[in-house]
Design goal:
Elements: E1 20-26, H1 32-42, E2 55-58, H2 74-86, E3 94-98, H3 106-112, H4 115-121, E4 127-128, E5 134-136, H5 146-149, E6 155-157, E7 164-167, E8 170-174, E9 178-180, H6 182-190, H7 202-216, E10 220-233, E11 237-249, H8 252-263, H9 271-278, E12 289-293, H10 309-319, H11 326-330, H12 337-363, H13 366-373
């Protein structure tokens, strides 16, 4: 998949009076926990998240195994928990959660990504969303695709209703969505493991998720880890790049737009960001986003989004030359081949070979040394 670069930018919507603020700070391994608190303060998190409400802490698990930039980093979880508990948030009201997919296991992912010891040290309990009650929720917003994809009703975790949410994504590319961040992180919480049915209409579904969150949550905040960013065939088979950045914002669209711009993309050329901006669901035009904290005006990572073999195959079935077989391969009992194929490719082939060499290189960095301490 070709990169969506600034040279390919689409015409931007007219400038408006709407503005957003995104905080960005430079960090290093020996200060990252404190820097998480600093970036949260710069973004005004206490003006949004209330200590009197329950807070869902939505972790990001893109792979059950650990791979740099793929899932929420342990220092990211540590920094956020340290800051919130230190600021008087009741640990009993902090609810770290993650969901499963047909190819991920949240409990094993919690252990492999080193969240478990961090959460235990802070007295927090991890919740796997498949273990909680789910219910059909009648959304009133003008959803673009999800009502069509799930005509029997959209199921959500019952615990989501009325609770504020804190997203913990990472800066990385994505073969389906160009890039992934705060908005895409809700995909893994608000939809059941059959959410792969939404891949065909990824950008419309991401807009739907913004509408859904607006109905469900009284407040939304994001702390995004860019200490190690993911380039290439995301969200798994990436090239980890050391970037030493942390981002935070109250506007999910704005923080994703700035992450996209950092990676070298024109945010308004990414369909879900442009559609969200046009619908008033957030600010995606960098001209209307105030950056506070450290200067990143000259940053351009030069990332390119590519498709892994698995994502390429998925797209060929849903939109390409294999489309006549879509119902047979993805919407019938034969669908069991898909997670098997994904696990064979990712876990049995790519991770022990290409992935292992990239992990070895990462472990020689200061961030790899910090990971060992968790």
């Amino acid at each position: 998949m070709p990169a969506v670069s600034e040279s390919l930018s689409t015409p931007s919507p007219p400038a408006s009076s709407r503005t957003a603020r995104v905080a960005v700070v430079r960090t290093r391994p020996d200060t990252v926990v404190e820097d998480c608190g600093r970036v949260m303060d710069l973004a005004g998190y206490r003006d949004v998240l209330s200590r009197n409400r329950d807070t869902i802490v939505k972790l990001n698990l893109s792979w059950t195994k650990y791979f740099p930039a793929c899932s929420s980093q342990p220092w990211q979880v540590d920094g956020v928990a340290t800051k919130m508990i230190g600021d008087g948030f009741d640990r009993r009201k902090l609810m770290p959660v993650e969901n499963k997919t047909v190819v991920t296991d949240p409990q094993a992912g919690c252990r492999n990504n080193r969240w478990a010891p961090v959460l235990a040290r802070h007295g927090l309990t991890f919740t796997a969303l498949p273990d909680v009650e789910w219910e059909v929720y009648p959304f009133k917003s003008p959803l673009l695709k999800l009502n069509e994809i799930f005509p029997e009703g959209i199921q959500i975790p019952s615990m989501y209703k009325g609770r504020q949410i804190l997203h913990l994504p990472t800066v990385k590319t994505h073969g389906h969505a160009v890039m992934t961040g705060s908005v895409k992180n809700s995909f893994g919480g608000l939809l059941r493991e059959v959410r792969h049915y939404a891949h065909k209409y990824m950008h419309e579904v991401l807009v739907d998720l913004l509408y859904m969150q607006r109905e469900l949550h009284p407040a939304i905040f994001t702390v995004m880890d860019g200490t190690i960013a993911g380039d290439g065939a995301g969200p798994r088979t990436m090239i980890p790049r050391v970037k030493n950045l942390l981002l935070a914002a109250t506007d999910s669209v704005a923080i994703d737009a700035i992450a996209a711009k950092l990676m070298g993309f024109d945010p308004l050329s990414i369909p879900f960001l442009r559609m969200a901006h046009e619908r008033g669901l957030g600010i995606a035009d960098p001209r209307d986003i105030e950056i506070v904290g450290d200067d990143i005006s000259h940053e351009n990572f030069g990332f390119q989004t590519r498709r892994s073999l698995v994502i390429w195959g998925d797209q060929m079935i849903r939109k390409g030359f294999l489309r006549p077989l879509e119902r047979l391969l993805l919407h019938s009992p034969l669908m069991v081949w898909a997670p098997v194929a994904s696990n064979v490719y990712h876990d049995a082939f790519w991770y022990p070979t290409i992935g292992r060499s990239r992990i070895r290189a990462f472990m020689r960095t200061e961030w790899g040394q910090l990971l060992r301490k968790y």
